[in-house]
Amino acid sequence: MEQVRNLTPVPQPTSGIIASSVYSAGKRVADISVEEAGEWAARPGHVVWIGLLEPDRNLLLRVQAQFHLHDLAIEDAEHPHQRPKIEQYGDALFIVARTAQLIDGRVTFGETHLFVGTGYIVSVRHGPSTSYAAVRQHWESCPSSLAKGEDFVLYAILDFIVDNYMPVLEQIEDEVEQIEDKVLLKPMTGADIERLYMLRRDLLRLRNAALPLVEVCRRLTSAELPQIHGAMHPLFRDVTDHIRTVQEKIDSLREVLAFAFEASLLVGQSQETAISKKLASWAAILAVPTAFAGIYGMNFADMPELKMEYGYPTVLVAIALICVFLFWRFKKNGWL
To answer: Would you identify the family this protein belongs to, as annotated (predicted)?
Structure first.
């Protein structure tokens, strides 16, 4: 099935009703008010598609009155921060999905609440979220697909949500590759480690947002939900495959970030070890003249070497030879 991604922002109001239309045979019949929605949805072969953005309670109650939605579902739609789930209230389904966008280098999440019943679908968006106007415009150009009904619209929205996880992951992947390129060159700074931690945390949150949709799609393909026609089951299984792909990519990126952190620690330890070896080597070399100076600086009265004619140059030559030998030996072993 063709994927839809919203690559260009679509102008939209700040809140309230974004779109309210009725379709027949996949074609838009009219733009309607909320108060007309129930009457149109009751007509055979018609589907009402309403899109809301952060509606107030009064607007939700107006929608509830048209489609006889359950009070608990309305309460959930009014208060975001729900985990992804699917609930059945009588003849209607209530579905929660999490949306994701990358804003200022951080993954930010929104929510979409979906009410699905015979002849209607209502989407309620909260927080950062890509407009579904792109979905509406795309499938309006394919009436034969849109004519399949409200369960196809549900599929189109869920598929759009899952597909839009990928641009977020692609941007994170680009940053992860940059981290990989420089991790072996030098140890990470405190800012680098903090950024790595935030990326892993955001990826975990994205995983927790995406993975529950597998269970949502599993239930949508089961026989226990008569609202979903059997012909739609392969499409929801396709969404499940996309979610699995997102999960695998998230797990892969988290592993790469973990390896990058471990590699940075090893590089740091290796550099510290190299510095310690150099310091130890020079300390051993400098210990030779220090030892000679200490011995002949003790000022004992009976030290025969002090009376030797060539004692002084002999000691200097001995110091030089020992130091050169130590330097050669440390250099050969890679310590210097």
So the answer is: Belongs to the CorA metal ion transporter (MIT) (TC 1.A.35) family.
d(C-alpha 245, C-alpha 228), whole Å: 24
Task: Report the alpha-carbon angle 47-158-128, nearest 5.
Answer: 105
Which residues, 6+ apart, have CB-to-CB distance to 255 below 8 Å? none
Final residue of a domain: which of 234, 249, 266? 266
Tokens representing 307 are 């009376």
pLDDT digits (tens, 9 = 90+) for 234-283: 999 999 999 999 999 999 998 888 877 777 766 666 667 777 878 888 88
Q: What is the CATH number of the domain that holds 49?
A: 3.30.460.20
Question: CA 225 to CA 90: how far, in whole Å?
Answer: 11
Distance CA 282, CA 206 (A): 52
Say if CB 32 and CB 20 are below 8 A apart. yes
By residue range, what is the domain housing residue 318?
274-332
Q: Is the pLDDT of residue 15 over 70?
A: no
pLDDT in tens, 133-187: 888 888 888 888 888 989 999 999 999 999 999 999 999 988 888 887 777 677 6
Q: Is the Cβ–Cβ distance between 133 and 10 less than 8 Å?
A: yes
Joined tokens for residue 199: 């990326």
Six-digit token pair at 249? 């990519």
